[in-house]
Write a structure and sequence with these properties.
Blueprint (H helix, E strand, L loop, with lengths): L2 E6 L14 E5 L4 H12 L4 E6 L6 H6 L7 E3 L5 E3 L1 H11 L10 H15 L4 H10 L5 H21 L11 H11 L1 H4 L9 H10 L3 H6 L3 H12 L10
Parallel strand pairs: 1-3, 2-3
Antiparallel strand pairs: 2-4, 4-5
Helix pairs in contact: 1-3, 1-7, 4-7
Length: 240
């Protein structure tokens, strides 16, 4: 699995064509949205290479692939380009059906997508609260709102009486939500799960997953990157 660990920025040469029998991921090491796609690639055992992008100073050739300038982006050997994290993960599920991560039942599949919609309303809090906190602003109202959202998630999991959100093994929805929980310690938001015991147990179980273990960073590395990010000079190559 070839990877360009160091990020490529403006003025960099575009990478060569995607090797046959592989897929390429354009990513950023610390991006939670790109981590969703990385988790799915790893869990499904898909051969891929990774090109990391400097999101502060994006190469022109990258913007030609995704005019939105965001990661993750997938590229096939035939030059097809797919972006937006839920769409890239659905694409991988369809094209590499060997290990299924989405349920076959249409209603169960729809339930996962609805839950993801609910969760997407919570993700902004993971950025807003640490940013305001760093400026010395009062975050108590936002923290209460996040707690409420996490309690709702907890109720969803408790009602299922299963280990994970899609049953007793990890499915797509678990991987789609995980990156923000992995960063809770770094964000100083772990206390927001105090009223959510099943959710806490879920995070412990998720930490045992081989794909999560394989690609996660330790909290010191996260802290180093997020410090540079909050100071307005993100060091995408932090720790390399």
């Amino acid at each position: 699995m070839a990877s360009s660990e160091k990020c490529l920025g403006k003025g960099s040469s575009p990478p060569g064509p995607v090797p046959k029998g592989m897929i390429r991921l354009y990513s950023m090491r610390f991006c939670p949205f790109a981590q969703r796609t990385r988790l799915v690639l790893h869990a499904k055992g898909i051969k891929h290479d990774t090109i990391n992008i400097d999101l502060k100073d994006k190469p022109d050739w990258f913007l030609m692939k995704n005019p939105l300038g965001l990661v993750p982006v997938l590229e096939t050997p035939g030059g097809q380009v797919i972006y937006e994290s839920p769409i890239t993960c659905d694409y991988l599920e369809d094209v590499y059906p060997e290990k299924k991560l989405l349920p076959a039942d249409p209603f169960e599949k729809a339930q996962q997508k609805m839950l993801l919609e609910h969760f997407s309303k919570a993700t902004p809090y993971f950025y807003k609260i640490p940013m305001m906190s760093r400026k010395g602003e009062d975050t108590s109202t936002l923290e209460e709102e996040l707690k409420e959202k996490l309690i709702k998630l907890n109720e969803n999991l408790a009602s299922k009486k299963t280990k994970y959100f899609g049953g007793d093994s990890i499915t797509m929805i678990d991987y789609m939500m995980w990156p923000w929980f992995e960063r809770m310690d770094t964000s100083g938001l772990k206390h927001c799960m105090d009223g959510a015991p099943e959710l806490k147990n879920w995070t412990e179980r998720m930490l045992e997953d081989p794909s999560i273990k394989a690609i996660m960073f330790d909290s010191e590395t996260y802290k180093g990157f997020y410090k540079s990010y909050q100071e307005g000079k993100p060091d995408y190559d932090y720790g390399l």
